[in-house]
Input
Amino acid sequence: MLTHLPQHAITLHQSMTVDMAADGLPAKLITLVNQHGMSVTLMDIGATWLSCCVPVTVNQQPELREVLLGVSTLTDFYQQRAYLGATVGRYANRIAAGKFSIDGEDYQVSVNQNGNCLHGGENGFNHRRWQMQQENATEVQFSLLSVDGDMGFPGNLQVVVTYTLTENNELTIRYSAETDKPTVVNLTNHGYFNLLGADSGDDCLSHQLMINADHYLPTDQTGIPWGEFKTVEATSFDFRQLKRINQDWLVDNDQQQAQGYDHAFILHPDVRRATTACATAIAPDNSLIMDVLTTKPAMQLYTGNFLAGCPNQMGGEYVNYSGFALETQFLPDSPNHPEWQDNDATLRPNEHYHYLTCYRFR
Output
């Protein structure tokens, strides 16, 4: 049944289904392959992006390069706390003290990091079994019902995440959701990238990066924003022109307290239509470029500051800065900042949450 897949994908399908999931059943995997040989492997646990193999040419020799950090067993997937490649929700990023109000009603949701709610709480979407349905050879859809009161969040929330692999070496992720009660929703994928190869042993800090943003959001030492946008002008957060990630490394307090970048950027309005890249990353040897396009208003840059000890695909462990994440989303703690009108994460009955993010490799 798997014989039509590349060997690396066959190996992953086999190794990821040896251990049973939390519900006592094996995970289900699917691999999408395009005409150029790019392949993407996805799993129903966490609606997770497990693998991304991209064709590259080095010294005139073609090769398939795994650029997405990941694991090779389900036991390792449950063990790691880095949310590798998973769909995170209901609320990606942090909510201060896990508290917010909607229409005068107060809510307390699960707290799981420094007294705050991170990526949906103790049992977020990243470990749930999603319903998986293959639409066609290049598209797969995952759906999940998050019931009213799940981790403290109000409303029955029906979520659909659709992955599509194109012939342009793009993986597009579409997020949609509907609710029967006012709630907050912020979905993203937590993929980590290393364009030199996920298991190359090279860190990600010498990649060049561009982010189309004039402002970023300073935070306290637990990652909760102070509330004020800050211009990137004349700061280490100015990625408006391509520069190495480590060019201005740890030069200011905002970076030092996070041990690197772990901050949200307010994307320029012109790039929120997913027609222009909101971010571009280039491998240090110029062998591969990744563009990120999105309809979300913000993006979190995380440089893998606490990846040490996280299991990798080779049976070993990643180290800090093994990969970087570019998480398109609403701003952290936006339910407690109604003044951020472009980042209103409130979803109401009869409204439709619909956003997309595209990762393009060239």
